UniProtKB/TrEMBL annotation:
The lineage of its organism: Eukaryota, Sar, Alveolata, Perkinsozoa, Perkinsea. This is Regulator of nonsense transcripts upf2. One of its GO terms (cellular component) is exon-exon junction complex. Residues 130-227 form the MIF4G domain. One of its GO terms (biological process) is nuclear-transcribed mRNA catabolic process, nonsense-mediated decay. It holds the Pfam family MIF4G. One of its GO terms (molecular function) is RNA binding.
C-alpha cells in the first residue's frame, strides 16, 4: 500500500474538531419528529436525505466524501431510519451487476462510524451472511451481489471497520471443500486477494496468517488433485503474483534499473534505437558491442558483455545520452 492509499484509509476526517458536540449525536425519533414538523412535514425531511444520497452516489473524490460526512450531522441525518436506508443503499447499488463499491462510500461510513455503530454492524453482518449462504449453497448465479459484498468487506477491513480475522476466515472457507475448482469461487478468492490481500499480507499483526493462506492457495492451485479450469488457474496465479511479485536475479520482475548495464544497452538498441537509426549506423553499433566477452548458458543462450559494467565505460556514457 503506497502512502496515498494509506492516508486515504487511515487518516480519517476529524469531525470532532470541526463540529460542536451537540451535532455529533444520534438524532432520536422525538427530535427527528420535531425537526420534521418544523420543516413542514415528512416530505422535507425525506428530501434532505434523498439529496444527500444522490450526492453520495456521484461521489468520486476524497474531499467530497469528507464534506458529505460533515453534512450528515449538520443536516441532522443521523437517525436510525436513515442509517438503515444507507446500509441498504450500499449493499444494493444500482449498478450491482458490476460488483463495485466505491471506496469513497466506505470513507463516509468510516468517518461517521463512531456515532453510527449500527450502520457498521449492519453492513458487515449482512455482507458476511450473504457470502456464507452463497458458499454453503454453492450459488454461482448472483455474481454481482456477491462481488459487492466481497469488495465491501475488503474496503471495510482496510478502514478497520471489520476485523481482519473475519476476512481471512472467509478466505479460508473459500479454499475448503474444493471450492477453488469452481471458476466462480476461484474468481472470488482472486478478487479478495486483489482487494485487500497486500494490506493483510504486509500488516505486521496479520502477515503470518495471511502468508500461510496465500501459500495454501498456491499449493491448491498447483495440486494434481485440484482440477482447475484454465481461467481459474490464471485468475489465482494473477492474484498470487499481485501479492508476491516474481523475483529475478535483477530484482522484481520488470525492474529495468536492476538489469546489468550491458543488458540495458542491448534492450535499448533492440526495442528503441533500431527503429530510428540509419541501417549502416545500427550495424556499426552492433559490431562495436563487446562480442569477445560472452557467456554461453546451458540452454544455448549467448550473453555478451558480462564484464562491461563500469559506469565510466563508453557503453554507460552512450546509455546516458
Amino acid at each position: 500500500v503506497d502512502d496515498s492509499d494509506r492516508s486515504f484509509y487511515e487518516d480519517l476526517y476529524d469531525l470532532e474538531a470541526r463540529l460542536p458536540p451537540v451535532l455529533l449525536r444520534d438524532v432520536s425519533k422525538a427530535d427527528a419528529d420535531a425537526d420534521t414538523t418544523a420543516k413542514g412535514g415528512t416530505t422535507a425531511a425525506t428530501a434532505a436525505f434523498d439529496v444527500w444520497l444522490d450526492n453520495l452516489r456521484t461521489c468520486e473524490r476524497r474531499d467530497t466524501a469528507d464534506e458529505l460526512s460533515q453534512k450528515w450531522f449538520e443536516e441532522g441525518l443521523n437517525t436510525k431510519q436513515n442509517r438503515r436506508k444507507l446500509a441498504r443503499f450500499i449493499l444494493n447499488p444500482r449498478d450491482k451487476a458490476r460488483g463495485t463499491v466505491p471506496p469513497e462510500w466506505l470513507r463516509v461510513v468510516a468517518n461517521i462510524a463512531p456515532w453510527a455503530k449500527d450502520l457498521v454492524d449492519a453492513l458487515s453482518s449482512q455482507a458476511l451472511k450473504r457470502l456464507d449462504e452463497a458458499l454453503a449453497k454453492n450459488e454461482t448465479d448472483r455474481v454481482g451481489e456477491q462481488m459487492v459484498c466481497l469488495r465491501l468487506l475488503a474496503q471495510m477491513c482496510k478502514f478497520r471497520l471489520v476485523p481482519p480475522g473475519a476476512v481471512m476466515d472467509f478466505f479460508k472457507r473459500l479454499m475448503d471443500g474444493g471450492h477453488l475448482a469452481n471458476d466462480h469461487w476461484a474468481e472470488m478468492a482472486s478478487q479478495l486477494c486483489l482487494s485487500c490481500g497486500r494490506y493483510l499480507l504486509y500488516k505486521p499483526d496479520t502477515a503470518t496468517r495471511m502468508d500461510n493462506l496465500v501459500e495454501r492457495m498456491w499449493k491448491l492451485k498447483n495440486s494434481a488433485t485440484q482440477a482447475l479450469t484454465a481461467s481459474a488457474d490464471v485468475s489465482l496465479e494473477d492474484a498470487y503474483f499481485h501479492m508476491k511479485p516474481r523475483k529475478t536475479r535483477f530484482g522484481v520482475k520488470g525492474g529495468e534499473q536492476d538489469r546489468p548495464i550491458m543488458e540495458r544497452l542491448i534492450r535499448k538498441f533492440i526495442f528503441q534505437d533500431i527503429y530510428i537509426m540509419d541501417e549502416d549506423e545500427g550495424l556499426r553499433l552492433a559490431r562495436k558491442l563487446p562480442w569477445e566477452h560472452h557467456v554461453v548458458e546451458e540452454d544455448g543462450t549467448v550473453k555478451i558483455g558480462e564484464k562491461c559494467n563500469e559506469e565510466d565505460s563508453e557503453v554507460y556514457k552512450w546509455m546516458k545520452e
